[in-house]
Design a protein that fits this description.
It is globular, with a radius of gyration of 16 Å. With 220 residues, it is of the alpha/beta class. Strands 1, 2, 3, 4, 5, 6, 7 and 8 form an eight-stranded mixed sheet that branches. The protein has eight helices and eight strands; from the N terminus they run βαββαβααβαβαββαα. Strand 2 and strand 3 form a beta hairpin.
């Protein structure tokens, strides 16, 4: 499918929150109970249509949550159009650490406008939750970001949440023709598949180029 724009999104959150499983569920509608730990940064893509009718090729960057990968992950904050912060509603620590993720993201993103951000409370299919909807919603409201609850396992709320943040990207940047390093306009030429799964080696260009900024930006 042709697309009007390439839009870069980043998934952030603690290890085990469900970022990788969320990405696989959204891109190819599959679910596995356990994935290998993400090393550095992984990448997949999918084409969607915003509510206004813009066809967007999403580049979704799945990041490692471990502390020793932070220097690599933060390089990708600079040129994104939106962020999804994922926590596990059954794990209090993953919620408490959202404060760090938000602060770090906002300090290092280069957008001159408020970056569209959504917090996603995952694993709502589990009964013994440690974080209530009300508490998480109030936290999101306090930090002026969106909040939605999802179940990757049961495929609940994922498409709606991601498309909601895509509409925010459309409203904040595209409709107003405001430049954003996480968005690249593309001519409508050629035919592309609607769904494409791409594996990405985050270290290849990182080690070769020795430049985080060049490594993180969208390529044509």
């Amino acid at each position: 499918m042709n697309h009007h724009y390439v839009v870069k999104l980043i998934l952030l959150g603690d290890p085990g929150a469900g970022k990788t499983s969320l990405l696989h569920r959204f891109v190819d509608d599959t679910f596995t109970e356990k994935y290998d730990t993400t090393i550095g940064v992984d990448f997949q893509a999918k084409t969607v249509t915003s509510t206004s009718g813009n066809i967007l090729r999403l580049h979704l960057w799945d990041t490692a949550g471990q502390e020793h990968f932070r220097s690599i992950v933060t390089a990708y904050y600079r040129c994104i159009a939106a962020a999804l912060l994922v926590f596990d509603v059954t794990n209090r620590e993953t919620f408490d650490n959202l404060e760090h993720w938000l602060k770090d993201l906002r300090q290092k993103n280069e957008s001159l406008h408020d970056l569209p951000i959504i917090i996603l409370g995952n694993k709502t299919d589990v009964e013994k939750r440690k974080v209530s909807f009300e508490e998480a919603h109030e936290f999101a409201k306090k930090h002026n970001v969106r909040y939605s609850e999802i179940s990757v396992k049961n495929n609940i709320g994922i498409d709606e949440a991601i498309l909601r943040i895509i509409d925010d990207v459309d409203d904040v940047f595209i409709k107003k023709n405001i430049p954003c390093t996480g968005i690249k306009k593309r001519p409508l030429v050629g035919i592309e598949k609607k769904l494409e799964l791409t594996q990405y080696n985050p270290f290849e260009n990182y080690n070769k180029k020795k430049s985080n900024k060049l490594n993180c930006c969208i390529q044509s």
